Amino acid sequence: MYINEVSLSNFKSYGEEKEKFYFSIPNGEIGSGLNILIGENNTGKSTLFEAIDFFRNSTRKPVESIKNKLIDKDALVEITFSGDIEHVIEEFSQPNKTSTFKKYMYQIESDNFIKASRGTSDIKTIKLWDKESKEYRNETGIDAPLKKLFETNFVWADTNPNDETSFGSSTICGNLLKEISSSFTETNEYKDFSEYFHKTFNSNDTGLRQSLRKIEERTQEIFNEQFGAAKITFRFNELKVDSFFKNTCIEIDDGINTPMGEKGSGMQRSVALALLQVYAEELVKNPEKEDRTKPFFLFIDEPEICLHPKAQFKLFEALLNLSKNKQIFLATHSPFFLKTPFLNQIGVFICKNPSGFPKPEKISSEKNLLPWSPTWGEIIYSAYNLPTVEFHNELYGYLQYLSGKHILSDFDGWLERKGFSKTLTWVRDDKGKNSNPEKVTLQTYIRNNIHHPENLKMQTIGFSIDQLKESIEKMVALIQQEI
Questions:
Q1: Would you give the end-to-end CA distance of the chain in angstroms?
Q2: Could you tell me which residues come within 8 angstroms of residue 53 by beta carbon, excluding any fewer than 6 positions away?
Q3: Which of 81, 207, 370, 397 has the smallest count of CB within 10 Å of its CB?
Q4: Cα 248 to chain centroid, rounded
Q5: Domains recognised in the chain with CATH numbers
Q6: Omega of the bond prior to 374 within 30 degrees of 0, cis?
């Protein structure tokens, strides 16, 4: 089961018009389950994560804090799930709610869906979408059972990373240890432990049982006098393996051996993300366990915090592998999470707020500017209006391809015929000697400057960011005209 679509309205900075995110879903290919949100600050990236957290866990915050303060209407978060929903319901649903969930499943072509919403009109209630009547219905007591169908783990940019390295059942560490311990109960070590546990706590010969017997007998005596004959016994149930993990802590020895929570937040976050990589490696090694695990969605807000570029690459590589079978969501400003040949398999969302409200747009093949889109340079330019030499190179090369002019002088002449002016002077460096200067277009001038760092004379003159932007804008416009 995967998150197919999220729709927001009036949630914090989001406006009254519903903004919809259609997410990429794992299909076994590298990067297929990865969804990346990029864009400037205050464009709704982290807010999307908060909305999904609100949908699943409600909130203890005042309702007014999550409603758009400019619009006097309730906030609403709607999520549509798709995939093998019936299997998830049968495996993880509360038994008395199984039929209720199945009643609201619906099909589009061969895919199964179930849709639900939570709003600020009643934050304690989740409603299920009835496809036949095309409205939400309030099924009593469905909130907690729906929550049990899937797990979410949020690594926030502004919260204590120590929370992410606790060993609760829904945390990264908890899931990691579940993977390690899933077969441990079948070992002789665990069977010996189980036998000794019951001998210690439940055998009539132990001192503990002898002390408890007095309590049992007195309790039974009072019960029999007041309610009737019955035998009362205290029995210690064997603890599940994951119960022990809740008392686990991580210690770090960097010269001083202390619990992780006493280290700096940078070190804590680095450990949390390192554990995430280990978890990813374990799942990749054991893909057969996927059918037996509850749907698990991972959200990381600004994963680049406290990580140097090489560490960012390593983390991204782990996430790409994990996303073959798991759905992962990143909100980032770092270009290192876009440097991959698998960009066309990743769900990339550019977040902007042109009218004061966030307007996310998923990069799609239908809107590609280049045959090999999307590219790192193209995304950075679209998201931040930031021109890069990488994007300039791509545009220049593609226009050469479209024109069929691969000799620079011929291509520059073609640009001139398309309305580009030759206003700049380029001077070749021929083994340390300057050749005759030639007039070239801004596009060719910048291209030569990029490709010839050995030309110290021209490198000294260089080009400005404004010139780079102007050149890119004109080439984008020409490509759109030519195709």
A1: 39
A2: 152, 154, 299
A3: 207
A4: 27
A5: 2-167+249-381 (3.40.50.300), 184-241 (no CATH), 387-482 (no CATH)
A6: yes
Tell me 254's DSSP state: S
Question: What is the rounded CA–CA span in Å between residue 39 and residue 275?
Answer: 27
d(CA 313, CA 259) in angstroms, rounded, equals 28
Type of residue numbered 32:
S
Tokens read off for 409: 């002088």
Q: Which two tokens stand for residue 401?
A: 């391809």
Query: What value does the mean pLDDT take over residues 108-118?
Result: 92
Of 143, 42, 43, 145, which is closest to residue 92 (Cα–Cα)? 145
pLDDT, mean of residues 110-114: 91
The identity of residue 25, as a single letter, is I
Can you tell me the distance from the alpha carbon of 365 to that of 374, in angstroms, rounded to the nearest whole number? Answer: 8
Q: How far apart are CA 396 and CA 211, in angstroms?
A: 86
Give the helix ranges, DSSP H, for 287-441. Answer: 309-322, 376-384, 389-403, 408-417
CA distance 305 to 270: 9
Give the number of other Cβ atoms within 10 Å of residue 449's Cβ.
21
Decide: 200 and 239 in contact? Cβ < 8 Å.
Answer: no
6 pLDDT more than 80: yes
Q: Residue 282: what residue type?
A: E
What does the pLDDT look like over 412-459, one tens digit per residue?
Answer: 999 999 999 999 999 988 776 777 889 999 999 999 999 999 888 888
Backbone angles phi, psi at 406, to 5 degrees: -100, -10
Judge whether 337 and 48 are in contact, CB under 8 Å: no
- In this prediction the pTM is 0.79
Amino acid in position 63: V
pLDDT at 167: 47
What does the CA dihedral 457, 461, 467, 469 come to, rounded to 10 degrees?
70
The angle formed by the CA atoms of residues 275, 279 and 363, to the nearest 5 degrees, is 100
Cα(429)–Cα(452) distance, integer angstroms: 9
Nearest to 441 by CA among 403, 465, 464, 409: 409
Query: pLDDT for 223-262, tens place per residue?
Result: 888 888 888 887 777 766 666 656 666 777 777 887 776 6
Residues 6+ apart with CB under 8 A from 282: 176, 179, 180
| pLDDT per position as a tens digit, 288-345 | 555 557 888 989 999 888 788 888 888 898 889 889 988 999 999 998 898 888 888 9
If phi > 0 it is left, if psi is from -120 to 50 it is alpha, else beta; for residue 420 that is beta
Helices (H), 105-166: 143-147
CA angle 100, 103, 109 (to 5 degrees): 145
